[in-house]
Amino acid sequence: MGCNIAIDGPAGAGKSTIAKKVAGELSFIYVDTGAMYRAMALFLLNRKVDCSNEEEIGEVCTQADISIEYRDGEQIVLLNGENVNAHLRSEEVGRMASVSSANPRVREHLLMLQRGLAQSHDVVMDGRDIGTVILPRAEVKIYLTASADTRAKRRYLELSEKGLVCDFEEIRKDIVERDERDMNREVSPLKQAEDAVLVDSSELSIDAVVAEILRIYHEKVEC
């Protein structure tokens, strides 16, 4: 049995960055659920599935075996045993992932694969419903959040550093609206699991957040 750390929280809270660092510190596998959805999209494209045909997507998706492992410190996404890292970031794959990820049977199949990874490996997984839906029995659950202002500032700085013109108030508005959607969607809404520890990163550096989650891990359980 693997040891599982689930990190949930709203968009812009730094979940992926933190989860990767925590996984690295503990020598756990960071399960990139987004990459798994892209691998599924690649599989569907390779099978020439019609992206508008939900029934066909649902039938074909169950033939995809998707896993994640690390080789020389690099995350490798395996699709039916083949390393597909080089093919996951194309626009075509992104478009198919956006469509296929909404298919209930795709979500069900990937849920099974994600739980399989968590059962056989020590993993850190982040998202919106990891502790409530995907890994409800995770040994450590974290709800990582930050104020809307803080998350907007982080996004504004990220875009500005890339030379992009952006508006802080518009970014903040988008974040607040996304929070509202995520918290009120019918399927797997964003919420803090009853047994999750709340970590507010508004006034903390990345290293400080990582240190706090490691402290919680060592305090709660040594797997």
Explained architecture:
The chain is an alpha/beta fold and 223 residues long. The protein folds into two domains: 1-28 and 124-223, 3-Layer(aba) Sandwich (Rossmann fold), CATH 3.40.50; 31-121, Rossmann fold (3-Layer(aba) Sandwich). The chain contains nine helices and eight strands. It has helices spanning 15-26, 33-46, 54-60, 91-100, 104-120, 130-134, 148-161, 168-184, 206-220; strands spanning 4-8, 29-31, 66-71, 74-79, 82-83, 123-127, 140-145, 197-200. The strands form two sheets. Strands 2-6-1-7-8 form a five-stranded parallel sheet, with helices on both faces. Strand 4 and strand 5 form a beta hairpin. Helix 1 (15-26) packs across helix 9 (206-220), helix 2 crosses helix 4 (91-100) and helix 7 (148-161) crosses helix 8 (168-184). The longest helix has 17 residues, at 104-120. The radius of gyration is 18 Å and the shape is globular. The mean pLDDT is 92.
